[in-house]
Amino acid sequence: MTLVLSFGRDDPARVRFAASPLWETMAALRVLLEPHRHAYHLPWLDAVRPQLDHLELEPLLALSPRRGWTPDFLSPAPAGPATDITEQLAQVRLTPPAQVAYEVERALTERHGEPVPAAAWALLDDPAATRARLAGLLAECWRLLIAPHWPRLRDLLQADVLYRTQLLADYGLERVLGDLHPRARWTGRAIVIERAGQRPATAERHRLGGAGLLLMPSVFAWPDLLALIEAPALPALAYPARGIAELWQPTPTGHSAALADLLGRTRAALLESLAEPASTSTLARRHEAAPSTVSEHLAVLHRAGLVTRRRY
Fold it and tell me: Does this model's pTM top 0.70?
């Protein structure tokens, strides 16, 4: 059904952005389950496939039904913009056992047309042990599947946040909330999220109640828009970050010959890379060059008036 997130008086002041390493880890498992729905991420899947034999994925996959409910405690909301994977895994390990039991049971029972693996029911026997086991599996999934690619993923997520915060400064919160996803629209008092492919007559309404809303750009959420509204989790929307189509593409090596004759090959390549704003460290990774070298070339381009820059 349609989901309506209603804003109160204080909620607009508590809208914030944050990227979540643990959310990306959990969302990446969806690509393993449904690769046909995530064609943009097939290069990533090919890259990590050799690591899959070293992972015990069954418990996490059993709790991530294609159509159903996934435990919120497995991907807690980031406490702030600089939250890292270590802090988030610590949050998972501090989840009360009663909450673990409730959410695991709900994930095993609220699913549509997908059988529960017989071994998964054992996850309810000892919630504290299950919590420790799942946290350890998440840490391994992060280490083998996400961490090697995190600099590239983080660059994309940060670029999305920069774009939307500039949108906020230029046009206001209404434009930001109305631009998150084709299925989301802003009414002036609420975000209305339509079910994919239809507009049912019934709607589930959720009042933010002063908690605000966390907006999480996500690489692996595409093409979906996902809402987290169950207490005690903070209300959050995970939306596809901009630029997914080019995320796994190799760095272009070709550039205008005339531009290279004028500026040199390296400066021409850097200039063409800046069709979208990027940091020095991002450009250095993209072009496999030392940050100091990239910084020197950018300084020349800046003095010539060909690029602009600002500190972030």
Answer: yes
